[in-house]
Structure formats: C-alpha cells, structure tokens
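[agent] plan:
  1. take the single chain provided in the ticket
  2. run structure prediction with default settings
  3. attach structure tokens to the ticket
  4. add a short note for the reviewer (M.T.)
[agent] executing step 1
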Amino acid sequence: MPTIPAFADVTTSDSALRRFLHGLPGVDAVGLEARAAALGTRSVKTSAKAYAIDLAISMIDLTTLEGADTPGKVRSLAAKAVNPDPTDRTTPMTAAVCVYPDMVATAKAGLNGADVKVASVATAFPAGRAALPVKLADTRDAVAAGADEIDMVIDRGAFLAGRYLETYELIKAVKEACVRPDGTAARLKVIFETGELSTYDNIRRASWIGMLAGADFIKTSTGKVGVNATPANTLLMLEAVRDFKAQTGIQIGVKPAGGIRTTKDAIKFLVLVNETAGEAWLTNEWFRFGASSLLNDLLMQRQKLNTGRYSGPDYVTVD
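[agent] step 2 finished; step 3 output follows
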C-alpha cells in the first residue's frame, strides 16, 4: 500500500510516528465503557432479529486453531461453513474458514469452489515471537497454498516498548508478502491482542499504526489470552476506522475475535457497528466475527425463530 499523502510525514521516523500517536486524543475509559454498555441494551424486534442472525452468520470466520487439528476436522469445518444447517438450505454461508497455514490447501479443497474465503493465521501466531524472515516465509507459504486472507499478529513486545516504527514496518512487510506473483493479493487482518496492550490509549495507537501500514482489517485478539474482544475495545476500533475513513477516504474492516459465543453477544456487536461506523460496515467485506461456537448458537436461535421450537445443542454439529 503506498504512503497515504495526508500522513506522509508521520511515518518518516520513529520520533515522528511517536509524536503523532501520542498526540491522538486520550481515551475517556469511563465514557467509552458507558457508551458500549448503553448500546448493548438496545432491543431488537423479531423481524430485525432474524435479519441480524443471518447477517451475523454471514460474517463469521469459522475457526479452528488447535495443535490437534487434523485434515478431517478441517474438511468438516469447511463443509459446515458452506452448509451451516443441513436442514435449512436458506441458511447463509459463513464468510471464511480460518486455519493454520499448513491446513490452507485442505480447507480450500474442502470448500470445493464455494464462495467462502480461506483465512490463515501467520507471522508465528499467536505470540509472534519469531524473526522477520520466518514471519514473512510463514505468510508467503499460506498465500502460495491458496489463502485469500492473512491474519497476522503484531509484536506486542516491540509495541509496548515504544518501538512504533518497527511495528509499522512489520505490518508493511507482511502486506507486501501477501501479494501474489500475478499482482493480486490476500487481504490482511492485523491482530493487536488488545488484552495485552493494557490501556485503551494503546489500542487506539495500535489501530492507527495498523491502518497507516496498510491493514485491510484491524482485529482485536487471537482468542488465546484471557481477555479478548469486548464491546468497549471493539467500539474504540470502530471509532478509529470511522475517523480514518473520514480523513483519508479509505475504508478499513474490523474483526472482534474470542469470547463472542451467543446470539445476544453478536447482536450487541452489530448494534455497535451500525451506531458507530455506520451501515457501510454492515457487510462481511468490512466486519467479521472470529468465532467457532458462536455459529451453533446462531443456528439454534434461527431454528427457534423459524419453527417456534428450540432444538437444543444436539441438533447442530459439533465443531
């Protein structure tokens, strides 16, 4: 991604980037959490709920990121992404299947040409503790195997130590590694691991670094730490992408991941999107849920709305 003219001077040096990031308005933590909580109380009526459930299903990155992942499990997950509810073919497909790089080809084959993306974590996920050449090789391997999207992790140690330009340059390098020989590119999601960034001010600064460096999405978490996506940290990131678009005309997506397990949770996040960034983000091109168990609850609630009966967890497949 070329340098954004409005911010060309910001990334010329570590000191310039530091001045810009520390010049961003401080986050009112009490106000942020109060607004997130207030938006979470909005009631959603039956017809709107049915729409919201289908929208949430279509926004899921159906994920398995375990050391025990097998080709069979990944093929099963791909089948579920294409046909989440075999009893109701009107159920939307999920946005993507998210796997480790060595499972990308298996996921791609399992999707059999369906309009579902394959996302792959990379850059020594989840800790990001590896040398730059290793991180770039990890990314290139996933892209070469057919990944449509790359979910990278920043070096939280570098960021928390104040090495902002190093963090920026890492994201830029990974962005370049996402480009295929034919000139097309995998979309890049940048994971901050907000639970490790300690403060809302740090989350705002990380968001701006990611956007300036060319992220297509900014993402809260790996799902591998104690605190993952919350309404407050997602609201803050939505404000960041809204403000970035207002200043540059460039739209960036947001992906909360980890800890979103129920339909009620998902709808709260959709309200946050609508009320903060706006309707333009209410599509899986610009908003995703990083989740696995969430899909099952959405399917059960969808069945209840359609049939009047609550089928229970035994009627949906186990991921």
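[agent] step 4 note for reviewer: Strands lie at 60-63, 96-99, 117-122, 149-153, 187-191, 217-219, 253-255, 289-291.
[agent] ticket updated
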